[in-house]
Structures are given as C-alpha cells and as structure tokens.
DNA sequence: TATTGTTATACTCTATAACTATA
DNA sequence: TATAGTTATAGAGTATAACAATA
C-alpha cells in the first residue's frame, strides 16, 4: 500500500545517476554547461559573451602583443578556421588588429586596441569573480586543489610546460 | 644578445594565461572541449556519440523505467524542446520507447528496449574507463576530491539532494 | 613538402517563442 | 492558470575539406 503511494511526489529525490555518479567527465560536461551560461549572463552585452574563445583571446592579445592566431588556437583548442572567424569578429568590433609578422610573411601578429584594452580591464575582475562565486559551497582549500589538478590537466592537453617552469624558455 | 636570440623558437614555452591561470571556469570549459572530443572518439559509431545528453538519457532510462523526459531534462540541463529531439532521435534508433503516463495524460514515461539495454551495458564500462584514463597524471586521491567537489556542485545546480541522502524519499 | 591563414559547406547545438492538451 | 510535451526558427558553434601564399 505504501509502495503504491510513493508515486513520484518529488521526482528528483531518489534519482541515482548510475555509473555517472563516479564519472568525472559527466560532472565536467554538466558543470561546463551551467558555468558557461552563468558566465554569459554575467558578461551580457559586453561583446565577449557567448562562445568559449573570445575572453581568452582578448586577454592573451592584451598580455602578449604580437601573439599569433595559431598559438591562441592551440590554447583554446580550436582549429585555424574557427580562429579566423573569431579574429574577424573581434577585429570588426575594434578590439584588436592584425599585422603581418616581420619575420614570417605567412604569419600574423595580433595587437590590442584601446577599446580592447579597456574591455580586458573591465572583464578581468568579472571573470575571476564569476568563477569563484559559481562554487559557493566549496572551501578555499578545495578550490586550490581544483585549480592545481585541472590546471595540470589543461597544460598537458594543450602542450604547455608544467606550472612553475614557464619562466625558462624551454627546448622544443 | 641572448635577449634578441629568444624570438619565438617554441611559441608555447612562455605563454602566461593572465588571470585565467587561476580561474576555474576557464579550466572547466577548456577541459570540457577536450574530454568531449575524446569521449566522442572512444564511442565512435555507437549511436550515442556526439552531444551531451544521449549517454545520460540512456543510462537513466535503463536504470529508472518510466522516468519522465522533463526529469531527465533537468538533470542534463536542457529545456524540454531539446529533450524532445533527443528522445525522438533515440526512439528512432530503437533505444527506448515512450508511453503515456498512467497517472497524468500530459506526461510520458520512457522505457528501455532490448537494443537500448544492450547498448547501455556496452557503454557503461567504456564511459567510466574513458573518464579515468583522460586524467592519467592525477592520483586516486585527487580523483576522489574532484568527484566529491564537482559532484556536490552538480547536485546543487540541478537540485538533487546532497550525496548520501538520496536513499530517503525526501519532502518537496 | 609543410605551415599559416583563409574560404566554403554541412552539420549540430542553443535559445526563444508559440502552440496543444491536459491538469 | 500552470504544466508536459511539441513544433518552428534564427543564431552560433563544430568539423571537414580545399585553397593561396610563403617557408
């Protein structure tokens, strides 16, 4: 009788996630969707909302004048064709400019504009704050572990040297 | 002299990521892209590759016969319209069936088919293995911390009760 | 022959709104 | 009035292949 009464009063209450309960990729993929939506909302109207590459591109160009599109493409894990559209878009918005690289006529260097620099300054604290505030229920220690472990994984994926060793210009 | 020689021999070697270096959302978003691509590759040809909802839907329907699309939609953070297309697709593939819910004619229950059950059994170990092998350079302890912290965050986002309390059918 | 940037295309995902039928 | 599912559509992202110019 009580068995028949349970029905689905709160359908969420007793849902088990099967093996996904212990599967990191599931959590990464799920949280990615939520955090990206939240980030878009917190940057609404700012020309860098939507999509995963614009913020990184802006900050990298601001920090590394003359950086090449192909380098950024590697760091944001896009192919060159996707990178072209990204740079097109940001150039049209007046955030950066392209110049032919002095040492290689095939390549380009990207340079920040005044507007781009202002926007970078505007979003920098916002991006950091949004990221931390998205995890209100984790401790600073847990946060540090996540940064360390996920940072290590990211660097391995894109081919950056391990943390703390990026001061020396390494061998190829 | 040595200053002029550095040029850009290995362009990746000394790239700083600006504030993104300490921004969790950046790592989540970046790793998400890589892990999703890798998962797609490891499930190539299996009818559940591509896109984030199919695997979860299959395992949830297999585990919870009669589960409603709207419940799954909440757990995978999609709206109902996206859920419809997902279920359409999986029904056409013969992985699950829809039935009108006996207690509410508006609602549906989803049920696994033989093919669906077989596919679920096929992918379960693959998904778990892929997830762990994608992080070859983290310890089991670090892995456990990630599962615990990200799992907690996921449950908060989608409105599931905290871990360990999902045995009791909670109040609404 | 390999690399950098470019263009084109097809495919998928995302977000939004409006609609139906039930409750 | 609110909810479960559905349909339609515009916009954005993704993957792929082919191309030109340069190394």
Summarize the structure in words:
Two copies of one chain form a homodimer. By secondary structure, chain A is mostly helical. Chain A has a domain at 23-132: Arc Repressor Mutant, subunit A (Orthogonal Bundle), CATH 1.10.10. In chain A, 54% of the residues lie in helices and 9% in strands. Chain A has seven helices and two strands. Chain A has a two-stranded antiparallel sheet. In chain A, strand 1 (96-101) and strand 2 (104-112) form a beta hairpin. In chain A, helix 2 crosses helix 6. The longest helix of chain A is centred in the last third of the chain and has 20 residues, at 114-133. Chain A is globular and about 60 Å long. Residues 1-8 and 166-172 of chain A have low confidence and may be disordered. Chain A binds a DNA duplex (23 and 23 nucleotides) through helix 5 and strand 2. Chains A, B: Pfam families: MarR (PF01047). Chains A, B: InterPro entries: HTH_MarR-typ, MarR/SlyA-like, WH-like_DNA-bd_sf, WH_DNA-bd_sf. Chains A, B: GO terms for molecular function: DNA-binding transcription factor activity. Chains A, B: Residues 21-155 form the HTH marR-type domain. Chains A, B: It comes from Ectorhizobium quercum.
């Amino acid at each position: 009788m009580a068995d028949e009464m349970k029905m689905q009063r709160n359908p969420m209450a007793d849902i088990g996630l099967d093996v996904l309960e212990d599967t990191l990729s599931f959590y990464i993929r799920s949280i990615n969707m939520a955090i990206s939506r939240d980030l878009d909302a917190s940057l609404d109207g700012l020309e860098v909302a939507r999509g995963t590459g614009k913020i990184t591109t802006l900050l990298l160009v601001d920090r590394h004048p003359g950086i090449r599109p192909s380098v950024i493409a590697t760091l944001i894990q896009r192919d060159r064709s996707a990178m072209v559209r990204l740079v097109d878009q940001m150039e049209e918005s007046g955030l950066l400019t392209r110049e032919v690289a002095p040492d290689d006529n095939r390549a380009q260097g990207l340079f920040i504009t005044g507007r781009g620099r202002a926007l970078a300054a505007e979003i920098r604290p916002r991006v950091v704050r949004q990221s931390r505030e998205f995890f209100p229920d984790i401790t600073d220690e847990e946060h540090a572990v996540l940064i360390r472990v996920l940072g290590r994984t990211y660097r391995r994926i894109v081919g950056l040297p391990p943390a703390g060793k990026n001061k020396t210009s390494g061998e190829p």
